[in-house]
Specification:
289 residues; two-stranded antiparallel sheet; 8 helices
Amino acid sequence: DARSCIASLLMICVPSIIWQVDVGSYLLDQHGFGLLLFNGALEVASLCLLLATALSDPGIVPRQESFTEQYDARTKSFRMRQPARYFDLLLRGHNFKLKYCTTCSIYRPPRCTHCSVCENCVERFDHHCPWIGNCVGRRNYWLFYSFIMSTGSMNVVSLATAIAKVAFVTGRRRDTEGASVGDALLGAFAEVPLTVALVVYCTALVWFTVGLCMYHTYLISTNQTTYEQVKGTFSDGRNPFHQGILRNFKDVLCSPVRNRYFDAQTGSSRWPSFDTKSGARSLKAALNE
């Protein structure tokens, strides 16, 4: 959903510009360019990671043709009945029920879920993010986590520095005008309205951004996805994917990202290499001759 991504870009970009112009100039005069460069780097990282996550393949599993187009070599006939709804699999001592997806015509691998928004089965499905307009899964989770961490850090730095500027202006008015704390604060509000607006905006968002960082850090430390945690898949405490905190972080964030199943330019499937649709039709035509 491009509209969601654009809205999120504006929610980050506009306050970032205001911060650079308003608070950044104060930091440059009072504290040098260290914090200015640091928060600027966080802003650029947040925007780039947002775009990277939104435009990435989360791990879409290719669809297969309908079961009626599948040729069974054992019986030498085309399938007439839909495969069994569930298939039992024992993995790492844990029993999994692989569900047959009637939309994609595949048995979903463990931790793979069909997204009702994207209408695709996604490997290690975490959730469909409405702020990004894309699914978060096995291939782009590390990008998503980096995005929320940079955004949360930027939010905290922006809020702290904006409050520091308001406090500085308030203190200066008290010293020069001899005003009370209340009057000096109201005077500061009138003098730096953009900074005050930035404080209100960042305060409203910091609970969400920092809370999201903490929540996903917890999920990684326990090697769960949002979908699994909300559904209570491993609520009994038996998670076959849990390897300890450090190994969980390595597994989720540092594992090699496999190549996508689709060609990025043409959109054609790279797997399986055999064209099941044309192959099945050719075989069906040959049998009817």
